[in-house]
Amino acid sequence: MFKNNLKIAWRNLMKDRQFTFLNLLGLSTGLACTLLIYLWIHDEYQFDKFHEKDAQLYQLMEHRKGTGQVFIADESSGILAETIAVQNPEVEYAAAEAPAAWFQKFTLSVDDKNLKATGQYVGKDYLNIFSFKLIDGNPASVLADKNNIVISDELAKKLFNTTDHLIGKKILFQHDKTFFVSGVFEKVPVHSSEQFDFLLSFEYYKEIQPWVTSWGNTGPHNFVVLKKGTDLDAFNKKIANVIRRSSGDTSRTAFAMRFSDNYLQNSFDHGNRIGGRIVNVKLFAFIAFFILGIACINFMNLSTAKASRRLKEVGIKKVVGAGRNQLVFQFLGEAILLTLLAVIIAVCLTLLLLPKFNQITGKEISLHFDWDLIVGLSGITLLTGVVSGSYPALYLAGFNPILILKGKMRSSVGELWARRGLVIFQFTISIFMIVGVLVIYKQIQYIQNKELGYKKDHIIRMDCEGKLVAREEDFIEQLKKLQGVADASFTYNVMIGRNFGNDGIGWDGKNPNEYVYFEGFGGGYDFVETMGMKMAEGRSFSKKFGDESDKIIVNEEAVRTMGLKNPVGKNITLFGKNQQIVGVVKDFHFESLRETVKPLYLKLIRQDSSPWNKLMIRIQAGQEKETVERIKVFYERYNPGFPFDFHFLDDLYEKQYNAEIRVSILSKYFAGLAIIISCLGLFGLTAFTAQKRQKEIGIRKVIGASVIDVVMMLSKDLFKQVLIAILIAIPVSAWAMNQWLNGFAYRISISSMVFVIAASSVILITLITISFQSLKAAVRNPVTSLRSE
Fold it and tell me: How many angstroms separate the CA atoms of 750 and 110, rounded?
């Protein structure tokens, strides 16, 4: 019986090739989209999950109270982890970290090789906490000595041309300090949020940067592994007041958060976790669900629309004894067979599209036919087949055989409305996705073109190292003489995100118990001019005014926060020292546009031995390539042994919005596919409607109906359903996109033109889709249609 049903199913698919082609195309496209999104979501969930102690691994965070709000910070004092470990027996391992994100790249040298590499300073138990696999060395001891360095196998091959017998080998760090190789680890997995080429001891970092040992200074990251069975809530209550006990600071409260959760859920509001990357994961999960739903709806609509061709088959089978269940299984079997073919095509499409998909998403996803994927694909095949085939199967199996054989079967009102409802749902989702694409695109354009308060274009940023340290002003003076260099200065800020904030500013009338965050900026002479900032009042720093160590510049938001009138000339305090305000710089964005502009102060920094300083060099427009080459030649002559490494500031700025840009690009493709799949359904429905009513069309044409009349007759019902979809989709999409935009402190307002464009696009596409089949039926010779009569 099974073999017979399979044969009948195959013959039916081959008999109506147009139906089979439309369903295969729609289902396979929908399944390919779903598979790509599944692979992306699966990849996102893999981040930081590979650590053996994942369930016990926590990052120490801080609740910070200030200006009526509670903030969450992932940074703290560099001695927080070790203090908590000493005081709490529940802690198995603890380590602090000065993360690689703080530094651009370091120069490592072996003999005559000078290479740039990414590194971070970590506590001695770091490799007991994180499961980065050591090829050589003991995780318990590789970082025990302050003179040790642990390198990746990839870096080892570049420096030594091998990964064997490297323990004890010397590596010159920044042409200044010699470290000895104590271990070699496998290249950090792509699914690690911690990315680095080498590790140095945090104890060494304490020596060169003693500020990290102060409770008042924050910045380092801290991690702990808790013993199995530890109650996290009870542990958090125990450590909540460790900062207050150690420093007297009542505005900061420590707590532990599972480390692997931070990758996806890294956004907070008023102290509560509100999203982060998980928002995009959920968004694309919904998109996958809706696209697959649209494809299944196509199947249902096309199957029920062509049911009239199989009425006699169903009637005869029922008369000769076929039960309802047998018929249901037969038609479900046909649906599952078609879905299986669609899955095979979808897998081929996925393999074809993966390189481009990886390029868009910035990932390295591959399709491995492991047991999980095979089970998943089998589940998708069965589920999609059952979902898409259930309504047609139940619909066909429920026919009355007597009425079928007498030719008295008519489409029920329920069937008609079910089909219309599914079409409306399809196009509601399609319009929703078009609106989403337009809004996301406009917000990205707004972000990229918004006036930031400084000029990010044509500026290169590079670290000060080697001979440049403590000689920045001399280097800049000579650099400015190069053709194509418009201006130059230096700073210890990255200009992209916070990095030296504090609550050290005091003023008359300030509440001593209130925590007010100020971003601290430091810059050399001409820093304001190089960055293209504007002064609202007063002046910037200048050599003609002599010693300006007790002078300070603040931004407009700082003036508002402090409630100062006529601020220029007023005195405030910075860490208890008097500072005179000499200028007010207009507000500029030093964080992403998701954040409001924070109050900041700017201090003049003279050339010193700080490793934090970064050169900011403005290049004349149109001469970028030639000027960069001149700077490279000059830099390598001035600072031999240090490879020339730089970044364009506008590129670094745009990296903040990589997630949004990728969402925009992917949404565009998925919205287009949703519309195509929906139109395939309309195309098929119009074709079957025209076929079903071909005799009616012939008669109408004989008695004088024009081509336009016939086209309108075939199109008006489907067109009405699309209009209803537009009316439903507009308010729903407006609400949803406003929720998304609320994640930005600076955002566009959704114009009515967005909805007009979305509605017009769908109407135009619908007209083109319907008109093709309608015109084909309308211009057909009526004699052909009526010949059998």
Answer: 57
